[in-house]
Amino acid sequence: MTIENFTKKLQNRLSGILPGEEAHKELAPEGRYAFKSEEKDEQVKSAVLILLFQKDDKILIPFIQKTIYPGIHSGQVSLPGGKAEKYDKDIIQTALRETEEEIGIQRETIKVIGKLSPLYIPVSNFEVNTIIGYIDYLPKFILNESEVAKLFFIDIQEFKTVKTITRQVNVRNKTFNAPFFIFNETEIWGATAMILNELKFVLK
């Protein structure tokens, strides 16, 4: 299947009713709401991008591992993205800008096909908006080494057989169980896993 055919079908599915909270709950950590009430402060708008591209007969999604820094999400695996800035026209532009800044894909070459459901992250008070887009060429990635420690890829077909495990994690001196996706040897948990579970629902 070509990237154009695949994304056309996906776009149709994204235009319908999204699974949202139903999908998010399946991969939500036990301690998800142990940190902060959603009602305390105005939520910080942010966006990530699920970027699809084709290599040979595979349709791939790039993921980043964040660098180590004094912050909550230090060293975690995530999608390219970040906080909305005042000069962003909208949340889509936030996702495209952050993707260009972090992994070097020029924003004007990305064709946006839709969005997943917004997801609130209590520990950082962020509302994450997931944008889905694709490029019709084989990319050359340029990593922002101050933000990105590693880049790796997941084949969209892996979502059919992806395994999950549950184990303990510790965040801000709180220990709780959290489900993880296991893609080959890469473990993904938290908000990124919840986002990917909604994509998995949509792909079904």
Judging by the overall fold, what is the CATH architecture? Alpha-Beta Complex
| Main pleated-sheet profile | 8 strands, mixed
Number of helices in the DSSP assignment = 4
Secondary structure: helix percent? 10-25%
- Alpha-carbon distance between the termini? 16 Å
Q: How confident overall, as mean pLDDT?
A: 90
What pattern of helices and strands is seen along the backbone? Answer: HHEEEEHEEEEEEEH
Output the CATH homologous superfamily: Nucleoside Triphosphate Pyrophosphohydrolase
| SS content category | alpha+beta
Instruction: Return the CATH topology.
Output: Nucleoside Triphosphate Pyrophosphohydrolase
Strand content: 35-45%
CATH class annotation: Alpha Beta
Low-confidence stretches: none
Word description of this protein:
With 204 residues, the chain is an alpha+beta fold. The protein has one domain (3-203): Nucleoside Triphosphate Pyrophosphohydrolase. It has four helices and eleven strands; from the N terminus they run H-H-E-E-E-E-H-E-E-E-E-E-E-E-H. It has helices at residues 3-14, 21-26, 91-103, 190-203; strands at 44-55, 58-66, 77-78, 81-83, 111-115, 119-121, 126-134, 148-155, 163-171, 174-183, 186-189. The strands form two sheets. Strands 1, 2, 3, 4, 5, 6, 7 and 8 form an eight-stranded mixed β-sheet that branches. Strands 9-10-11 form a three-stranded antiparallel β-sheet. A hairpin with a 2-residue loop joins strand 9 (163-171) and strand 10. It is globular, with a radius of gyration of 16 Å. The mean pLDDT is 90.
